Amino acid sequence: MPPEQIITEALARYERLLVSYAKEITGDLDSARDAVQETFLRLSRQDVVALEHRLRPWLFLVCRNCAIDHRRKVVRFSTEPIEDLDFASNEPGPDHRAVAAEDANRLRDLVAGLPRQQRELIKLKFEAGLSYKEMAEALKTSVSTVGVQLHDAIKTLRRQWIDENPEILPT
Predict the structure, then answer these.
(1) Measured between alpha carbons, how far is 20 from 9 in angstroms, rounded to an integer?
(2) Per the domain annotation, does 80 fall within a domain?
(3) Could you read off the pLDDT of 102-130 as tens digits, one per residue?
(4) For residues 26 and 35, is the Cβ–Cβ distance under 8 A?
(5) How many CB atoms lie within 10 A of CB 8?
(6) What is the pTM of this model?
(7) 3 state DSSP class of 142
């Protein structure tokens, strides 16, 4: 596949995820978009064909570094979501959609209360769909560290959720 096509497909596939990820780091949508733009600019300067087999972790690593650089320039942090996601279920009733939306908002709030590293791992795993190995590459850490921190984050979220919803039995 030619380099231009690899870049075009990567942009179509990862831009939205990278902007969301970068916004978590920068706290600002414009800075997040700048970081993603810088990421793809850097990609265009690389041997894209050689990077193709590990493109996804490379993009998240470079995006993370660009976002951190932007955050240093503008010292402010926000945990606002990049956009309202549609978490409505397949159930036809509006009451069910309202409950699902409330649950999604509450879960988003719980995730926002996690330490920065755990929030980052949650985004990489559940929004970007990265594997543990890809997350470790993107964060320049070990796979076991990723596993432990992600496990701790999920355990914390589960405990907080059950504390708020005692009618749910832990599994």
Answers:
(1) 18
(2) no
(3) 777 888 888 889 998 899 898 888 888 88
(4) yes
(5) 11
(6) 0.57
(7) coil
